[in-house]
């Protein structure tokens, strides 16, 4: 375990979590095989950041709220903030991030994020609770951004790996407009054949593939004849797949929200994917990652 990480374990899995961003750092099976990215700095050093209070990039990295204007970096600030560890058990850990003067300067809301990690058999369950502790409606988006090993550590070649969605995914996909970080106009045909996608690095030369008409709330990742991962995301209606071409990971990113569309000039309440959380309300987003044995 790297110094400063919080370790949880059971007889099937071990996980390390970084308090910075409450970020899943490592997920290993009982044999010590790593399911997550190697975070090679030649490509991307992220591992599984949490995206809050926005997903993606804002036009000009700024948003309007009434007569005021605020700056926010891509994917928001939660991934760069230290979370407090508020509960620790052998196979569970809970973290909290609350609004403070620094967050209020860019996001003037009394939010609370609670992130629960729990090992349940051969699965890691992550539950993020977004709560509004203030006295006015709060706009927000949320997303997961885990980077899984590609290839997984079970002996199959990278080009043998497949994404298999729970149901057919014929809807077209969206793309980021080159050089902007914003969602481009139009769509392109789905790269999924029925339920199956054979990812290749060339698919990501123009950034992520984004599904905003997603039918599935679960998928599998791996190669035939070997163990793989079962990934479930019941509370997030959109999905992105992303890789820096040539790296040893595939990001499988369930989102509730996305970047500004190219040319967007509205205020934050008009931004696609923004949710409204009323005072004293909360909303949960779940992600379950399980090791699935070969059929």
List keywords for this structure.
mainly beta; 295 residues; nine-stranded antiparallel β-sheet; 22 strands
Secondary structure: number of strands:
22
Strand order, biggest sheet? 7-8-9-10-22-18-17-14-15
Secondary-structure-derived class = mainly beta
Beta content comes to 35-45%
Largest sheet: 9 strands, antiparallel
Task: Give the helices and strands, then pairings.
Blueprint: E1 6-9, E2 13-18, E3 23-29, E4 50-51, E5 62-65, E6 68-71, E7 84-89, E8 92-98, H1 101-104, E9 111-120, E10 123-132, E11 138-140, E12 142-144, E13 147-149, E14 161-165, E15 196-197, E16 209-211, E17 218-223, E18 228-232, E19 238-242, E20 249-256, E21 275-277, E22 282-292
Antiparallel strand pairs: 1-2, 2-3, 4-12, 5-6, 7-8, 8-9, 9-10, 10-22, 11-21, 12-20, 13-20, 14-15, 14-17, 16-19, 17-18, 18-22, 19-20
Describe what you observe in this structure.
It is a single chain. This protein is mostly beta strands and 295 residues long. It has one domain: Beta-galactosidase, Chain A, domain 5, CATH 2.70.98. 1% of the residues lie in helices and 40% in strands. A hairpin with a 2-residue loop joins strand 7 and strand 8. It is globular and about 60 Å long.
